[in-house]
Specification:
By secondary structure, this protein is mainly beta. It has one domain. The protein is 0% helix and 68% strand. The protein contains no helices and five strands. The radius of gyration is 19 Å and the shape is elongated.
């Protein structure tokens, strides 16, 4: 009898350029943002309960189009999936800094 097939272990890392505009209701202005999103997907074997781990870290810098205020925005989200049926755990964290021009 052959052992059951199992998923290959591995980590995939992808970097994605992010560019866009967001509205800041506190200053009533658009903020031009750019930066990088880092996507990490880790898979382990079914013998290790089939754990899948997804992480997205986004770091953006921007400038307010009206006030010239500089912004730094860092966002992270982690999703862990395990077992059958899949049980999910989600954690997120966001930090935003405002600096006068």
């Amino acid at each position: 009898m052959h052992p059951p097939a199992r998923a290959a272990d591995g980590v995939t890392v992808t970097r994605i350029a992010v560019n866009g505009t967001a509205f800041n209701p506190c200053t009533n202005e658009n903020v031009a943002l750019s930066g990088t999103a880092l996507l990490v997907i880790e898979r382990s074997s079914e013998q290790n309960r089939g754990l899948q781990f997804h992480s997205v870290d986004i770091a953006l810098k921007g400038v307010g189009e009206t006030t010239g205020t500089r912004y730094i925005d860092v966002f992270a989200i982690t999703i862990s999936l395990q077992g059958k049926p899949r049980l999910a755990a989600v954690r997120s964290q966001r930090r935003t800094w405002f600096m006068n021009a």
